[in-house]
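[Meeting: bench + compute handoff]

Bench side (C.D.) handed over the final construct sequence. Compute side (W.E.) agreed to return the predicted structure before the next meeting so the bench team could plan truncations. Sequence as handed over:
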Amino acid sequence: MTFKFFTTSALLLVFSLFSLSSLSQYDPDYGDDDSEDLSGLPFKERLYTGGNFWANFGTFTNVEISPMLGYRLTNSYSVGIGAKYNYFSDRRFNPAFTSSIYGGSVFTRYKFFRNFIAHAELEMLNTNDFNTIPSTRRVWVPIGLVGGGYTANGFQVLALYDLVDDPNNPYLGTFGPDSRLYLRVGFLFNL
């Protein structure tokens, strides 16, 4: 039931975000005019920010905050950095298992057509070593993500595939524990 609820909620959110694209053509990730020359723009006007937020409460609690800062090199190409903090608690165990995951990332993205983007990202996360019991040691885990998505009106939806598949990867894939595909929904704003 939880997987069905999550899938239904995610699909409803995705369809809602796509329907918002008809309200305006404003996209802070990229300029409205593809022919706009960015070379004369001040540094600050090329910056955009945003990120992702996720919260799930219950027997399994998961709260994630992932802000990002991007810089438009051209109208179609941007690079950036991100930070991540994730708290989770699993109360199926006695005592409850709790952990914090933190780290950062670098990313690059390329816009094609009007609102579609190709995205590549390398995350480094500090997490518990899940290969030892009890998990008392922390390790740095690389996660290499590639994929694409849709961005419009300050919203972004990305489907990303993990190329590294590290055994300590703390994420569960969108389609179950063995899935290396992740769905990300977030927001973007001009500075």
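W.E. noted at the follow-up: DSSP finds one helix and eight strands in the chain. C.D. will use this when planning the next construct.
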